[in-house]
Structure formats: C-alpha cells, structure tokens
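Reviewers of the previous submission asked for a worked example of the structure-prediction workflow described in the proposal, so we include one complete record here. The input consisted solely of the amino acid sequence. No template or homolog information was supplied to the procedure at any stage.
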Amino acid sequence: MKTNGAPHWTAADSAELYGIRNWGAGYFDLSDDGAVTVNVQFPDGRVGVSIPKIIEGMRERGWQMPVLLRIENLLDAQITVLNESFARAIAALNYSGTFRGVFPIKVNQQCQVIEEIARFGSAYGHGLEAGSKAELLIALATLEPGVGHIVCNGYKDEEFVSLGLQALRLGYRVTFVIETPTELPIILEASDRLGIRPILGIRVKLASKVGGAWSESSGDRSIFGLTTSQIVQTLDLLREQGMLDCLQLLHYHLGSQIPNIRDIRSGVLEACRYYADLVKEGAALGYLDLGGGLAVDYDGTQTNYEYSKNYSLDEYCSDIVETIMTTLDPEGIAHPVIVTESGRATVAYSSVLLFNILDVTSFESGDPPAVGADEHELLRNLAEVLSGIGGKNLQECFNDAVYYRDEIRDLFKRGQIRLRSLSLSERLFLEIVRIIARETAGSRRVPPGLDGLEDSLADIYYGNFSVFQSLPDVWAIEQVFPVIPVHRHTEKPQRQAIIADITCDSDGKIDRFIDPRGLRKTLPVHALRDNEPYYMGVFLVGAYQETLGDLHNLMGDTNVVSVRINADGSFDFVREIDGDSIADVLSYVEYQPQQLLEQFRRTAENAVRAGRISPQERQTLLAAFDASLRGYTYFEE
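From that input alone, the workflow returned the following structure tokens.
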C-alpha cells in the first residue's frame, strides 16, 4: 500500500522490524496507532494498555524520566504460568508428586516485588530462596507460616542457622541446603543446643555442563556443592548422629539462563541418579530441587543462543517430569516433590526501563562546499575522490579517502593546516563514506573493508539514564535486552543509532541490539522533532538489574512506578517511589549533605565580605545549592 507514492508504514511493519511479537511473550505488542502496549489476560479476554498513556499519567503526577515501570499483572502471570504448566505436565504424565516453586530473593530484592510474589504466590504455595541472613529475614517477615517453602542456600553461620531452626517452631518449612562440609557441624551443634531437629538438603556438584553465559556455574569446577566423597562423609555423619531422616532434599544448580533443553534434561537425569542412591542409603528424601536456569527469550529467536532458549515452558516442565519418572520408576522410588528456583523467568517481564532522548549527534557531511584552489593539495585530492566515485571503484575510492584524511590529520597536528581546512576534509570524507555505504547497502558481496560502513555513520542518541545504575549487565556481561521506541510506530524509522547514557563514560552505551538474524550494532529510530519528547523502553529488565546497579557518576536509583491493569482497560498507580536525590547518593559515599551546605554557606559569606557578591546573591546561591541537594540525579525538565 502506498500513500502519495511513498510506501505506507504500519504498526505491523514495526512489530516485524523490532521483533516485539517474538520476545514479548504476548505481554507486549503494538497498537494500530503505533504505541507499545502491555497486554494482560482476564477471564473475559485480553486487555491492552498503551505505555505512552501510562507515561502521560506519570507526567500528570509529576514524575520525571527515567522511570522503572513495574507491571504487577505480569509478575502474577508468570507465577501462574509456571505453576500451571507444571500442574499440566504432572497430570498428563500421571506423576504422583507435586510442584513447589521458590523465588530466589537475590534476583530482585525490592520490597514490592517480594511482597507481591508472596501475596499472589500463596495460592500455589510459592516460597522463597534465601542465600544470606538478610534474605532469610525478608522471607520470614513476608511469607505466612505453612504456606511456602524457604530454601536456605549459601554460607550459613550460627546466627543464620539458629534463626532458621527457631522459625520451624512457628510453622515455617525452612530447609538448610548443605553447600560445603563445614556447614553441617554448625547445624548439628545449633540443633542440639536448641532441641530442634533440622530439615536438611545437600547440594550436589554435577558433572553435567551447560551452555550459555553462566556455564561456569556447572561442572566439576563449579564453586558450590559437595563432591561424591563429601556426600558420603555427610551421609555417614548424619547416620552416626541418628539424623539421616533429616536429609529430605537434594539440590543442584547448573546456572542461570540455560538456553538448551538438552542440557536441562542431562542435569535432571544425573541428579536423579544421586537421588536414587541417597534414598537407598536411607535418606528420607522427598524433594528434588533443580535450582534455577529456566531461560528468558530476550531476542525472540527461540534458539540455543545464550540470550534465548530453544524450548517452551510446557516443554521444560514435561521434560523434567518425564526424565524424573523414567529414571526413578525402574528403581521403585516414589516421585519427589519437584522444586525449582526460577527467578529470572519469574520477574524479567514485569519491569521496563523508560527514558527520554535528550539529544542526538549525527555524522553527516551536509553539502560540502567546493574546495578552493588555495587549499592544500591533499584536500583537492580528497575532493577528486568524491567526484570520481563509481560502482566499480568503491574499494579504491575508500582506500584513497582514508589515506588522504589521515595525512590531513597529521598536517593539522604539525600545525601545517588550519582548523577550517581540517573541518572541510572531515565533511568531504563523511560524504565519501556515505555514498559508498549507500552503494554497498544490500549487496551480496561487499568488498573487504567496506562492510560496517553504515554502522560507522550511525547517530548517537543520548538517553536520560545510566547504564551502570539501571542496566549493569549490558556493561558487565554484554547482556542483550530488547530496546524499542514506545511510540511513533506508524512511521518508518529512518535513522540508525546507538544509545548513549548521560554518565560521560565510554562504556555508558547500548550498542548491541536484537535482530531476527542475530545481533546488530545499531537500532532503527525515528528522527527527533522539536519540542516533542521521544521515549524509549528497555524491556525484560526485572531480573538482577536493580540489585546490581551502582553509583557511577553518582547517578542514583530511578523513580519507580508500579501499575496494575484492570479488566476494563484502565490502570491504577498502585505504588510510587521517589528515585534517589543528590543528597541521598552523596550520603551513600559518606558525605553529609547538611555539612556540605554549611561549607558552601561559609564560602558564599566570605564572598560577601570580599565584595564579590551581594547578600541577596548569596541567598540565591544558597537556595540553588539546597534545591540541587534535594533534586533528582538525572536530567530534569
């Protein structure tokens, strides 16, 4: 379809370009008017709410970008699909055990996230995994006794163990997973002193290896878990103490984000062999904890690429149940309660980082002026290259252009040409590269050295956020998240860009983007319009990003807004949390904001005494300093 002779661009075209219907998992889509929508399933059908409308509601309430948007419905939906997928697999295969999920608090420790998981998950008996004393306190204060399991991983000291043991008397099911041999004597001593028998698990160090970014969490060299000899020693000590009946859970963890279903099956199979032999040794096992690993399809390719997965949730559940049955049934061993510690897949979809674009740098030549006869010979040579570009000499022209440009730069360093001549040479070079990139675009065979020219001409869009604070995995491990404008999807994006943050750090950027054919170095974006905000979203950021964020350039936590979508298409702002003020982040690095204000007051008063400013100007300066202390750490409109 064409309008006035030009191709007509629709939201469907944008959906294909950005792959939102692949990675969105049905939760995110585009409306016909070009807005990104959040979609929630209700008994009477699916309801979609426009993210730009949510942003409009934020602005009406005075919230500045950047904002971390949490959609509570999506958190609830993921808990539902995980539990119900296992329930379907268990029923279909006549498995005699049950499923119990636990959420690892370390994946997202924010209070409103944990409270919602505990509240909504209570109907499924969904529990929490605690890897530290602080996380155990969160679990005990959040869960109701007798509702969900609390699995305690990580190193455990006497205080950790004593608190967990005493919680058993309140009705909590607290399981201590033995990660290292040194933990068992601590547990046994505390148990004897308090007169409380513990519920124990052991973590085995499987030989199975997995692919993906976290492959080092698996295999013989994984950090945590007991070796076979340590397992035997643990069994013998428990038998000697008359406490073998306390050993009720077998646990393993192959790593986060496991992309290949074959690796998952292999791990379950090996763990079941340990489970069978431990039962034959007399352990009262009834729980098999598979740890985490359920992947999120960040790029939507449904492959075994490290940021994707080649399986569905139903396949994941069915393969686990089937593998357990086929391994344990011939041994005559009862089916255990299946426990998973799925964190990433539970919370990833529920959070979106929203930010506005502040500025853009474009690498365009404009219309290069004619090179005068009085210019240096190298500039005249560069102009001849520009005028002589043809379809058959692209490689030669590019090589010549690079040579002349570099020679001109050397002349400038030696003071032999002036700034205006250097500027003219750069504009000539950019125009040469632009023409060559246009000529090679779409070619099957691009001459060596000419591939990637289009990327070198990409714009830099400056976003109002910090990679280090809000997307630390982008910087630290080159994690790839879906990035997409949240509006204007009925317009064809005519620009290519990378996204820079406002930290003034060369690593503060996003320059790896998802693409159906693999990663790409630039993102299609729309040209900015005067006096009109341009909003972008980074999706699937609910796992780890808030917990791992740091204070690079003293950029603090963003504003957080939680919404709940209603069946009638309306939405409620259920929670709103102010981001860090400048005073907040200064206090994190041991400054006292009031002391800073007093020091500045003395400096200003000395300036009054010296006659450099008036008393009224002093008051204006102090008011500005105080307002900045209370202000947002990000760019404010």
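Confidence is low (pLDDT under 50) at residues 1-6. We consider this example representative of the routine output the project will generate in years two and three.
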